[in-house]
Request: fold
Amino acid sequence: MSDIIHLLPDSVANQIAAGEVIQRPASVIKELVENAIDAEAQNIHVLVTDAGKTGMQVIDDGKGMSEMDARLSFERHATSKIREANDLFALRTMGFRGEALASIAAVAEVELKTRQESDELGTRLVVAASRVETQEPISCSKGSNFSVKNLFFNIPARRKFLKANSTELSNILTEFERIALVHPEVSFSLYSNDSELFNLPASPLRQRILAVFGKKLNQQLLNVEVNTTMISVSGYVAKPETARKKGAHQYFFVNGRYMRHPYFHRAVMEAYEQLIPSGEQVSYFLYFEVDPANIDVNIHPTKTEIKFENEQAIWQILSAAVKEALGKSSAIPSIDFDTEDMPDIPAFEQNLPPAPPQVHYNSDFNPFKPSSGGSGGGGGGSYERQKVDWEDLYSGLTKASKMNAPQPDDEWEDESVETLPSGEESQLSAVSGASSNLYADSVIEKGNLHLQFKGRFILTSVKSGLMLIDQHRAHVRVLFDRYMVQISQKQGVAQGVLFPEIIQLPASEAAVLDGLVDDLSAVGFDLSNLGGGSYAINGIPSGIEGLNPVELVRNMVHTAIEKGSDVKEEVRQILALTLARAAAIVYGQVLSNDEMVSLVDSLFACASPNYTPDGKTVLTTIKEDDIERLFK
Reply:
């Protein structure tokens, strides 16, 4: 039998490696900018065309490379960062594997111009699909200039799955922000289609954070600083009153490298326990300095997941540091003993035995004795009225208010708008057909009054028994269908506002909003781009008066980012569902009979009245036979 195992050609191996390292244009920007920082560059310029699909360029004033280094840099596992295995345990650089440039050159056309300060001439190198096409001396400035064009030109399947320009640009800006936040001593600039999005001069850390996310954060940040033999933690956390449901800026950095760490995230949020509502988040920018020998950054292709040797001890240090920052700023409630009305604390005298507690009561009190003032009924005096526990009467409304509270982020997955497979769609249509038969047997009787129960359910009599309708979910179903029609037909009616609201977004979120403007306009939003990530809300959809339009737009942007939806129809469903939830009748709202009749009629005019857009039950029927059985 002949041998079947053989070595892959370098071009194929490079494309396989590129599948792990280079996933989208943002991956290219990340690798090139990190290499520029490792080259000790002080000024880095990033230029992007068509969200990186057409071209990307990264220019730095770092050390540059010699002619031989420029050629070797595109070979796999060629690196200047490590020389032996032990160097892996003392890494303080960004990239080190030697796969980035080889992976980029395997799936794109790359042109490199580079020169060292000591050389008179630099080197120009052109590589496409792992093949060197040109190498020649050239006159150029000190540093390196990488130009990457036609990403995934030789892998059409990978290029086809790239997202819309707004989504890919948002990913590029997110990677750019992470690097800019951890290197405030370096000057950065970023241009998209010749439009300047970032111009960040070298500055202190706090000023860099404000330059990236807006000056509004200046009054919200609290300083965190702790130094131990195991780890040093510095940075900023936000005040508890700035907590919000979505859109918090949360960043961990370890030795100058961005990381995700859910375990440490819980340590930060534990410090805010009972200070912020459940399910809300706060912003934080925390920087760790730790011995490289105690961490492993090589457990993930993108190096965003890092393993620590003493995670439990670091958890305690981090939580204590955040609590100390909150305590210093009086964010945590405390007892103030420096007041004139300080309570008298009796001194303990050791020679005297402790006195037993004294119980004081009125022995002449008689609850049936008439009060002295006023004249009563036949008894000749007024009696003291028995106290009524009014809280029990409002227990139902308290429960309803809890139902209206925003749900935590981990429950959002259950409420997402999902596209069902064809088999499930046919099954759902069969259920809808069966439900239509149910409606035929459950015709609402004419002239019947609707009843409201516990401020949540609408009860009405039907031919087959008693129908219960969830008023909030029913209204969500009605509004969702209405907004979807408005978006598809662009029939949204805008209600002008007297004073325009201003919303300020980071560049990464503003790029997503730019892709949603058309659909928001179709619903009824009137937005004006003021530049610099600022937008003026001049009009809102009719019917949502009383809601906060700034938070509403912000939530829709964050939801689109979380879902990562790129299909136009899915984005429209997200917008329609977010608006419907915000504008729907809340639990506890008292409805008149006419309002209940109008809501029920609108519900049964929908194509799928028995389920909300996210698949929750809207109505149910208790059959007459089941009711009669209860009284046997």
